[in-house]
ATP-dependent RNA helicase DBP9
Amino acid sequence: MVSKRKREEISGDKEVDKNLVDGSLTFESLGLDQRLLQAISRQQFVRPTLVQAKAIPLAFEGKDILARAKTGSGKTAAYVIPIIEAIIRAKENKPNESATRAIVLVPTRELAEQCLKLVNKLVVFCGKLVRGVNIAQNVSDQVQRSLLSECPDIVIGTPSRILAHVKSTTFQVKNITHIVVDEADLILSYGYQEDLENIQKRLLKTVQVFLMSATLTGEVNELKGLFCRNPAIITLHVDKNESEEDGATVEQFMVKCSEIDKYLLAYVIFKLGLIKGKTILFVNDIDRCYRVKLFLEQFGIRSCVMNSDFPVNSRLHVLDQFNRNVYNLIIATDGADEIAPEEQIKDEEGVSASNKSNEGKSKKGKLRDKEYGVSRGIDFQNVSCVFNFDLPTTSRAYTHRIGRTGRAGNSGMALSFVVLKEQWGKHKASSLETAKRDEKVMARIQRDQKMNHGGAEIKPFVFDMKQVDAFRYRMDDAFRAITRTAIREARAKELKQEIFASEKLKKHFEENPDELEQLRHDRELHAVRVQHHLKHVPDYLLPEAGRQSLVKDLGFVGIRKTQQNRIRKARAIHKARSKPKRADPLKSFKIRKQK
């Protein structure tokens, strides 16, 4: 469902709600440099958004800024534009001085890459004066040191990477005039509090601070006290009748079911097209990614996986192709959910972020990439539905997940599976430890949505199980084929392919960008026995509404097997060899004499 509210296009590939645009101002009236104005015009930014119109003049006055605005409102440009303008003015006054003047702190590598892309677009006409680098990318320390040795004007990275270079003296912060903490409501949850404190101690007291956030939480107030001196607080109210919290434009539903019924309902939902548009399906474990992917493959439903095992280049490529509508379904894990349930409980009860030193560990103790995150800080575009196949373990993680849909004035849907307590553990093959507390977590999520998110309600969604049960035997047939060995092989196979594509082919794709378009991440893994008949749904299984939703011709399903096992194949070859061969008279040079 897409909102019918009028929108005004202000950039090449995004639409921003017209209510978020300040119609009284233009970028020219803000007194920006002509080269910067030309770059803004090239990006088709027509008028500044509300957050930009309020933040940029305050930035020119030298005030610290704490901005809270909904996702898709132009917060990144609100701090990038005044920083670039300030650097241009400083370079004109002291043209021979070379020093880094701005630091942008972000929680994830993906967000760092997105920020650098915007910087590069806005300095396209003044590239010799202003240059930005991203030191959060997955390259060696030697490469990062060489980038910093050239004194780039803007350095973008995660707090851990910035601090590592500051301590090694390869990065001098004595000339820093601006510092940005982007996604301030998220950055502490990644365990960066100690890093932020150490960075703040090394900065001058006169540095100008930008704190950008989608929500005002206790963590944001903590950062405000750490960095800011009497900041100007910008809180945008888009509409008096409309809540500004994440999820305010999202219809939220939950389905109470057993663990194995998750797979049955997911099969029916995607095969019958009950969800339209692009979907992000969240699970709580990397192995679950591949179990769900292999399960859906059995029915011809294509999907791609995105998790912390992937190289950064692959994650960014998946994101880029998803935004360009190459894929409609991403199966993702959230880095914040790959920790022990006990730690999540403590976090929900208000334990300080400084006590979360083990947040990057899974319940098995394996280290994860703590700078990875899907639920926040990633610019997913035009997501119709967030599908919580596994319910997150905290209400905050739930809010972050559903914030991927219902953005920039569009409406969206969130669907969550909740495992009943008496049903947990009855089907061991599909069981997950975090599902044991689903009902308690959902009660907490419902309270949080009502109290802190404009009275948002999570409605129950009831399936007609009599019609759904007709698909159960097909679901069981597909699920039995997905063994632990198959999951392990699929995970290793895809990881090997992604590493090869990410590292070995990086330079080749830079020289041949057209070939990069052919690299897909939703290819079938075929780690299980292929059952071709499952890809088609027979008419007798479909309810009346389901027949209307399937507009494609199902095609012909053959009775004979398309592939034979090696024993039958060997028998067929032996049988063919034992038969006497007749000579082809058209290929023979022997001519019989007629009597």
About this structure: The first strand starts at residue 7 and ends at 8. The chain has 22 helices and 16 strands. Residues 1-19, 238-248, 336-368, 551-560 have pLDDT under 50 and may be disordered. The CA atoms of residues 134 and 399 lie 28 Å apart.
